[in-house]
Design goal:
single chain, globular, about 140 residues, 8-stranded antiparallel sheet, alpha+beta
Length: about 140
Amino acid sequence: MSTTMTAPARLQVRRLIKAPRAKVFEAWTKPELIKQWLGPSPCQIISSKIDLRVGGEYVFHVSKPDGEFTTKGVYREITPPSRLVFSWTPCTGDHGDTTVTVDLTEQNGGTEVCITHERLASEASYEGHKFGWTGSLDRMEKLFA
């Protein structure tokens, strides 16, 4: 896995998941699957709602040791089984929406997941989302192990 930060608010995380691309795409788009992997440990998705269409909204209610929060956004692009683009309302208290692009590429008998998270407002937001996406992909790997 690799992560990079560029000018100054763009995070990119990559991971090879040993699963077919269609299954990985489903893991991003089905509420019952999102609950199994999204969020770094010990975070847990309590509820998830997904309206999978361009302009549709998703809402994830998350529990973590120091409280609960809600993350939500709107789908901007949906290209099964290779790409999702959506807004991400930060749970860190930053102002405004950020943009997440998820590219799924068949590679080496699995699927390379490339998450690009843009418009992060601060170094703290960058580090928090880096921790979150890395931890989420750790859990996704276990889901498909």
